[in-house]
Amino acid sequence: MKTVLEGAFLVGESENPIRGNLCAAAMRELTGHVLHSMAPDQRVTACSWFEPVKDTKGPTRLQRVTYIVQGALPKDFVKNVLKLDLSKIAQPLLKTIERLNRSTHVREETILDDDEEIRVLVDDSLNGLLDIYDAARTCREEVHRSLRTEVFDTVLDAFLSETLQELDELSTHTSVDGHEIDNYTITFVNDEFIELAVAGTVYVELQYGSRSDIRNDMGAILSDSYPYTARMKARVVEPQRILRDSVVVSVDNRAFYE
Fold first, then answer.
1. What angle, 0 to 180 degrees and rounded to 10, lies between the N-to-C axes of helices 61-70 and 19-38?
2. Distance between alpha carbon 131 and the CA centroid of its chain, in Å?
3. Which intervals hold domain Predicted pPIWI-associating nuclease group (predicted)?
4. Taking residues 188-201, what's their average pLDDT?
5. 204, 224 in Cβ contact below 8 A?
6. φ and ψ at 232, to 5 degrees?
7. CA nearest to 116, candidates 42, 248, 28, 13
8. In this structure, which long-range contacts are made by residues 217-222, counting pairs with CB atoms below 8 Å and at least 24 apart in sequence?
9. 31 touches 121 (CB < 8 A)
10. Radius of gyration of the CA atoms of the chain, in A
11. Per-residue pLDDT tens for 145-190?
12. Which of 27, 138, 148, 203 gives a 20 to 30 Å CA spacing to 225?
């Protein structure tokens, strides 16, 4: 793709009388490479939203753009929850590709040798691609935001419902007071799963001795906090529902022993 882009720039700046047409051909190849490499056939056709279009072989350009932006996320989720309009996002690039297609055919009436026209065509092509990249980043950010509450509740549920060795070994009775998420990332997305990694801090109460020991002033209760990490998954068809059996939480208690 880098080679094709360099070639497009070189021929576009040359004195070749059909430089615009050759540049358009290179830019068309570049956009094709991007769409096919980022949205391969087997990935696009595996999505629940994919439907074959009559008289076409494999995914359409719009379907490839859709996959690049939203992956296998359901269209209703993208439209109603994330508030993204894929048809509007893809339109500038798709229109530019149509112009590139027309410009690659060298006819007397289609010779493209005006430098400003060539520059606009290249700019529109690159901006169309950048719009898709920006939309993909926005989509992931919105998925990230929409999942935050679910991620928080899932981690809290794991702390409250599971006995974690790293906390249990710290006192006679260790209880979780709460936790906070320092950061979390979407580490992997394919046509089936979204995988997430979480890092945060868990707040605990460390009780030494029994309740009667505490009442008789023979025990102690201390508050402390420790960093934790967690991993979990959600299915792309239900992106706001974490799979509980996929949750793995680990607490770093090394500070307790230092």
1. 50
2. 15
3. 138-257
4. 87
5. yes
6. -160, 170
7. 13
8. 219/172, 222/171
9. no
10. 27
11. 888 888 999 999 999 998 899 999 999 999 999 999 999 888 877 7
12. 148
Instruction: Enter the tokens of residue 175.
Output: 């209880």
DSSP state for residue 203 in the 8-state scheme: E
Give me the sheet containing 193-208, strands edge to edge: 173-189, 193-208, 220-235, 248-251
What number is the average pLDDT over the span 227-247? 91
Contact 197, 187 (CB under 8 A): yes
> Which of the 8 DSSP states describes residue 258?
-
Element (H, E) at 220: strand 220-235
Strand, helix or coil at 190?
coil
CA angle 78, 82, 86 (to 5 degrees): 50
- Residue 88's pLDDT is 84
Fill in the amino acid letter for 244: R
DSSP string, 56-95: -SS--HHHHHHHHHHTT--HHIIIIIS---HHHHHHHHHH
Residue 25: Cβ-neighbour burial (10 angstroms; 0-12, 13-18, 19+): buried
| CA 31/CA 29 separation, integer angstroms | 6
Question: pTM score, two decimals?
Answer: 0.72
